[in-house]
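Why does this matter for the project? Reviewers at the last site visit asked to see concrete outputs rather than summary tables. In response, this paragraph embeds two records directly. Each consists of the residue sequence and, immediately after it, the corresponding structure tokens. Nothing has been edited or filtered.
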Amino acid sequence: MFLSSFENKIDKKGRVSVPANFRSHLNSLGYNGFISYPSFNHNALEACTQDRIEKLSNAIDSLNPFEEKRDYFATSVLSESENLQFDTEGRVSISEKLLDHAKIKSNVLFVGLGKTFQIWDPNNFHKFKAFARKKAFQNRSNLKWENKQKGEL
């Protein structure tokens, strides 16, 4: 899983080091990089495995081929996605197009979200995190454990 948050600086050549535990998790799944695309919800980047983007592509393909929504999703996600491969030192080069969407200038915050992660400008994320924590508190009763057996946590 992708857990925790890690801040790294973009070097002069536009590369950023991906956190070691994120790389390790991706490597354990057989990947030497990840897919990234602009978030719909935030000035941030979504990041996931090839398998996950294929599931998203399949969900898009399941829509009626002549429906406008299908084109909207395909254009907004698939055409904007980039395959970022690790170099020998565990860095990736994030394109200017993606950096501009996330309003990232010099530092990058990798934010673990379980099966995926996001890439943020650190200042923008800290503002969002305070808002998200407030909303999570307000909606905490919606989060339920899956009960497999009575009495089991």
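We now turn to the second protein, recorded in exactly the same manner.
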Amino acid sequence: MKRRHALLLPMALAACAEPPAPLPAAPPIAYDFLPRLRLDVAQVEVENRAPPGGPADLGAQLRPNAAEAVQIMGRDRLAAFGTQGVARFIVTRAVVLREPTARQGGIFSSDPGERLSCHLACRLEVLGADGAPRGFTQAEVRRTAPSDSAAPARLRAAENLLRRANFELNAEFEFQLRRALRDLLVEGERAAPPSAGGVTRESI
């Protein structure tokens, strides 16, 4: 080996050992730029009842995690514009799972590839002042995306999938709300905020 090549070898090895540059931070997940869905209730509660996704759930490692992303959507989109009753926005499922992919023909290889699978679901329950149900609606989205062998890139792919699925859940939720609970929406001339102000409470 020539002397010049021998001197350059340690530098090349050191360069290969350097960790990859961190991925740039994505903008915060938010829906406050959209018109709020004004409900004829005195209070909106946001709850997380989603079961844990297990060790394959990358959604729990994200910031915000999958359940928090759905809660942000509910908190940003819903507003209390009434004088009595409660609306409960409930996260019922929120995961971004690593799943093996099958070969052609449905046979799994000894070292299968991976994909990411996002499943988000929520439910809205509306109760009167006496606690009696006034109506409910729910929405659900399932989306998949390719995974990546490198951990940082895999997390970024999971984050992108969560953002896309959550935005689609927002659209599906609004559609289902307007279809099932149209009579409980405060719109047009009724859309003046109550004198006491709507209250939003989030369960921890």
